[in-house]
Amino acid sequence: MASTVFEGHIRSRAYELWLEAGSPEGRAEDFWEQARLQLTEQEAPTQEDIFADSDEFASASSVKAETGDKRP
Q: What's this model's pTM, rounded to 2 decimal places?
C-alpha cells in the first residue's frame, strides 16, 4: 500500500511530540521518525478492513455472474 501521509502532517505531529517531551534539543530526527511511524500505522488497513473489502469483492463478483455480465 502506498503511503499517503503528507510531510506537513508528519511535521505537525513531530512538533506535538517534541513539545510533549519538553522541547529537547538535538532530537528532531527521532521525533520525525516517531511521527511518521504513528501516522503510517493509522493509515494501514486493519484485519477488519481487509475482510470487509473481500466480502464486498465477493458479492460484486456474484452479482455480475447473476446478471450475465461477461466483463471481468
A: 0.57
